[in-house]
Design brief:
membrane, 5-stranded antiparallel β-sheet, alpha+beta, PH domain-containing protein, 3-stranded antiparallel β-sheet, 53% helix, 2 domains
């Protein structure tokens, strides 16, 4: 039986995701980098049996792991009661019912009180930020204009809004829906939302540390 302060998801060993949010940038570059590192590793292991080959192999492992944690691994996954924000090596597990606000800038952010929990894999591009600034500029310039100017400004703003519809907007909207659903269900059950927790991607941390140290040592051989 689940206590009032325990997330309902904790009672299940493998809760099923209700939404997987794909990363918005770095995927193509990340997979290309991983493929290049893998090819380099296979090549030197197969053909270059020298100290230089060892250095290249260790460097390929280190930089391949670095590409994985910075470009491919970061993403967000929503479950019935919580959302997991994966970052390079530190992940946030945030109860949906505890979220006060969902925002997106350079990164996706979930606010619980004054605390912010971010995912570096999802965010607006520089171009998206420029569109947002243009939209705000149109709104500000709308004040004090003639009726004709106001209509023209509204048409321009509508055009900007239409072009600004993006995957990032969907992520925020979907998360807000899940937050509202989770809050309503917990109110009906009389449970507390729980508190966010953190986990560390220890396999990635260990691989980075070991391969990086081994690569540096190999330079002195």
């Amino acid at each position: 039986m689940t206590g009032p302060d325990v997330s309902p998801d904790a009672a299940s060993a493998r809760p099923r995701p209700v939404e997987r949010f794909k990363p918005t940038s770095g995927q193509a570059l990340g997979w290309f980098g991983l493929a290049f590192a893998a090819l380099a590793l296979v090549y030197v292991v197969w053909t270059v049996h020298t100290t230089t080959g060892v250095r290249i192999a260790l460097g390929a492992v280190f930089f391949g792991t670095l590409i994985w944690v910075t470009q491919v691994r970061p993403r967000a996954t929503a479950y019935p009661r919580h959302v997991v924000l994966k970052n390079a090596v530190r992940d946030h597990h945030v109860p949906l019912a505890a979220v006060d606000e969902v925002t997106i800038g350079q990164t996706l952010s979930l606010w619980v009180g004054d605390e912010r929990y971010s995912c570096i894999g999802i965010g607006n591009s520089i171009r998206g930020d420029m569109k947002e600034r243009r939209r705000r500029a149109v709104d500000e310039a709308d004040v004090g204009r003639s009726r004709f100017s106001e209509l023209r400004a509204k048409a321009e703003r509508a055009n900007l809004d239409e072009r600004a519809m993006s995957y990032q907007t969907f992520v925020v909207t979907r998360l807000e829906e899940l937050v509202e659903t989770a809050k309503r269900e917990l109110r009906e059950l009389g449970h507390q939302p729980g508190t966010p927790r953190h986990t560390t991607a220890w396999p990635e941390v260990a691989l980075l540390a070991v391969s990086g140290l081994a690569f540096v040592v190999s330079l002195f051989l």
